[in-house]
Amino acid sequence: MKKVSLSFISVYCFFCAFSQKITKEQYVQTYKDFAIREMKRMGVPASIKLAQGILETENGNSELVKKSNNHFGIKCKSSWTAGGVNHDDDALGECFRTYKDAEGSYRDHSNYLRGN
After folding, report:
1. Would residue 4 count as lying in a domain?
2. Dihedral of CA 110/40/55/26: which sign?
3. Are 46 and 38 in contact (CB under 8 A)?
4. pLDDT of res. 50
5. Nearest 5°: CA angle at 40, between 99 and 72?
6. How many domains are there within the chain?
7. Confidence (pTM)
8. What is the pLDDT of residues 6-47, one digit of tens each?
């Protein structure tokens, strides 16, 4: 019985280690350089970008950010010609922009806010 319990606990701990959620602090540490770079490039405060990214992605844990690298919930709209992914938000199956990496999302967010 002890071996079975120990085996179960070991397997449980193994899976827990891989399913831990990213914290707000980890999100900031991971993406602060992108936010600072964009602040210098376009004048959008890094704190605002990081705060919105935290809210939109649930600290980087949301399904949308995992499948699209979209940190700001920017939708495709008709002018968007790059890739998109369907995701349920305000309506079912809305098109959200996809990015090669998080840096692309941060850059596009600055452009979007500045109307570019």
Report:
1. no
2. positive
3. yes
4. 98
5. 30
6. 1
7. 0.78
8. 555 554 555 454 568 989 999 999 999 999 999 999 998 999
